[in-house]
Design a protein that fits this description.
Blueprint: H1 4-9, H2 16-22, H3 28-34, H4 44-65, E1 71-80, E2 83-89, H5 100-105, H6 126-138, E3 142-147, E4 154-162, E5 167-176, E6 183-191, H7 201-211, E7 216-220, E8 227-229, H8 252-261, H9 267-274, H10 280-290, H11 303-315, H12 331-341, E9 346-351, E10 355-357, E11 360-370, H13 382-386, E12 407-412, E13 415-417, H14 425-432, E14 452-460, H15 477-528, H16 533-547, E15 554-555, E16 561-562, E17 578-580, H17 588-595
Parallel strand pairs: 1-7, 12-14
Antiparallel strand pairs: 1-2, 2-6, 3-4, 3-6, 4-5, 7-8, 9-11, 9-17, 10-11, 11-14, 12-13, 15-16
Helix pairs in contact: 4-6, 7-12, 9-10, 10-11, 14-15, 15-16
Amino acid sequence: MASPLKRAKTVKAATAETMAKQQRDISVSEFFAKNRHLLGFDNKRKALLMTIKEAVDNALDACEEAGHLPEIEVRIVQQAEDRFRIVVRDNGPGIVKQQIPNVFGKLLYGSKFHRLKMSRGQQGIGISAAGMYGLLTTGKSVKITSRTSPKKEAHYYEIQIDTKKNAPNIVKEEIVDVEWETGTQVEIELVASYNKGRQSVDEYIEQTAIANPHARVIYCPPVGERIVYDRGTEVMPAQTEAIRPHPLGVELGMLIKMLQDTNSHWLSAFLQTEFCRVGPKVAADICTKAKISPRSHPRKIVRQEAEKLYHAIQQTKLMSPPTNCLAPIGAEQILTGLLKGVKAEFFTASTRPPAVYRGNPFQIEVGLGYGGALGPDPKTDNNEEENGKGRNGRGKKNGGGGPAPARLIRFANRVPLLYQQSACCMFKTIVDLDWRRYGLSQSSGAIPQGPLVVMVHMASVWVPFTSESKEAIADYDEIRQEIRLALQECGRKLATYLNRRRRQKYEGDRRGVFERYIGEVVEACATITRIDRNELNEDLLKLARKITARADETLDEHGRPIAGPTAKLSSRDFGENTIVVDLDTEPAGELFQRSA
């Protein structure tokens, strides 16, 4: 028998011809089927979350574009130990019959990739990738039911994706009767695992309700009771319009391609029709700087001239792109969402003006929730902290080693981001900000500590995610600057509130000292002269209350102090978009409806 070494010598070496025979095209579906971790399907728990996320995102987008107040139902049915059936239904406009196979059975197919308009989906990968994962793990088809009008039938499809051809394979097609008038229902069976807690489906649904207060979400988990997140408002997000590319966001290679693909016959017309914020005067200025005739035919411009044109664009002063392509949540709606999902005592929010990165417009929004059921303030509740309990009767969250870290909630185009927090620009900005100046504890290189929830939302026509799984935002200087400014604005309001609370506690402690010795002072005075003990005692109590009047201040829902029996009403305010809640006396939802 030949030794392994001798057998290895008999293997023929590959030649250029044999290697050429092995090369073939790779379908995008085939690529992502082998590299599904790039899309977020890298473990069972995350696969369940990604499947629901993609279906819910598409449902919300469809409802808002059609002008329907979203009503989304999410059901998770456990079929076996590690097998689940996901059903997501919406009340949107539905999908026309001819498009259903391509939408759910073909990767990189959609209407959102080529338009510059704010939307949750971007790449046309998500829902078809979820169906592909279900097919790979269970062999079951994706089941879709869609109805576009109460006067039309509902169409039912069972679809499998052909990964070699990146094309849909229709297994079953029929007309069915459904109770709902319009909408789409998607059903996917997959191998997954369900867990509660952080980075779970439960947290995703909860945060989706916070960022979309206009939506009604019905959630049926595999265990436990059905949860309904009712609408906090009937106001729909503003309708957005697609814009053309901004000249400063176009790179040289893309500019050359646009010159070859345009239908314009003059260069000046090309600049005005293919870009936004370029009028006749700006187009002429660009051509003059590039030393190219405005009447040159775009397709005849060679690479050297295109490079001169590109540099001329970079040197030209241009207006920022229009912002009618964005629909931010808005400060008031952020407060509505936080009141729905966070039981805190102080809320504030801020929406920054539009800004630009790489020619793409974006807006940053921040909301803060502090105190209440989130826990005690370690700097004002020292006595309760020493006893191991806060005002909510619970011990410290981290086992008595100090205040727990703040909770960060991240959103991009109203979609929660639950994974890769440390790689996200939002997290890095919060860590770099000095929260000690706003009255919070913070260790070096860490997020602040205390009973705090920080919500950060980025609205953009193209969110710069770090990967196809859309879990973290890239660290652009322009984005980081806007996040920092919004956090600083909210931090100043929080510092004002905390300073007032600490002043109240100080005045309350002073009053306690006065009251402790009033009885002794009355008795001492009685031994010196004849007095009315009760009258003197009452007068000294009134004097103590007058000197420490701030301890009696209570704050209304706008953060303004309400005068007590002896306290004076101060005109000092925490600013706009701020709410103070007394959780012991008033439901947060009713309070906001009245204050708004």
